[in-house]
Structure formats: C-alpha cells, structure tokens
Predict the structure.
Amino acid sequence: MKKIVILISGGGSNMAAIVRAAERDNWAGTLGAQVAAVISNRADAGGLAFARQHGIAAEVVDHKQFANREAFDEVLAQTIDRHGPALVVLAGFMRILTPAFVSRYQGRLLNIHPSLLPAFPGLHTHQRAIEAGCRFGGATVHQVTAELDHGPILEQAVVPIMAGDTAEALAARVLTQEHLIYPRAIAQLLPTL
C-alpha cells in the first residue's frame, strides 16, 4: 500500500478534499494508496481533528520548539519517515523547507500554490494578481524544489478575476478549484511512484 503523508498548518481544507477524494474514489482499491498521516507544525491546527475523525494518524511537530529550521526539518522528516510515505503532500503548510528536506523527498514532495505559476510565487498572490491587472488567477499543483514555488507543474486551474474583485473573493473562488485539482494531480502521480 502506498502511503501519503499530508502536512498542514491550519484548517486543512485541501487535506480534507484529498481525504474525501481518497475515500470517494477508493484509492486503496484502485491506486493501492491511502492517507496514512497528517502532521502539523501547530497543535491548534483545525485539520488535525478532521484527520482523527477519519481514522488517520494526526501528529504535531511544533516548529517553535526548535532553535532553527534545520533542526525542525530533521525531526519533521523523522516523523514523516515513520509512516513510510510514497508521497509527501504540502496542503497549507506554512513553513519554508530547507534544501536538505526537499532533497530527501525529491520527486515525492508536492505543493499547491494559489497562483498560475510561474506568476506570483510567494505570499499575497491574489492581491498581487489584482494589482497587476491580470484577467485570470488560479492555482498550481507542482513538485517541490529547493527554489520556492518552482518545480515541475502537474496541474493548474484558471479562475477569472472579476471587476471589483477583492483578494478574499478571488481566494475563495480559487480555493474551490484547489479542492478539485490537488486530489486529481495526486491520483495521476501515484501510479508512477
């Protein structure tokens, strides 16, 4: 059975969409895969309760307990590795990972970013797209590389930017598409792992 470990920092709506897709589409039977664990860097992350309710191991590695990024990433990797994952999925995980961590999971580490990469890497993507006068925003599922918000693109969704849009309104429309493309990208990648 191919195991998936999902990393979150908050409510975990993308994680929940992935778990629901795995249940709905019987990934265990059709892809030989299951979500084995959800790990957060915050004990108060709402998504941990969702994971537990779905019988998924839910763990916390609090980044504030470590002197530096390298020490946090090493303990995080050890926690991930206990589950023997074929795939590690970042779903609203709000920590920049060290090159050593990224290298450890090369080709097996995914992220979703709320823009049409390569446009608008980093934060405040929706506001930046509106201010730039873009007609479209969207979301991108990509393999993680040491360079922030780069790496091979696996899936994208395009969302129109409406006249008078706020960053919040655009973010809400993009999020609905994230919930569709992230599970799809994972399901397409799993047979190749």
Notes: Strands lie at 2-8, 33-40, 57-60, 85-90, 109-113, 136-143, 153-160.
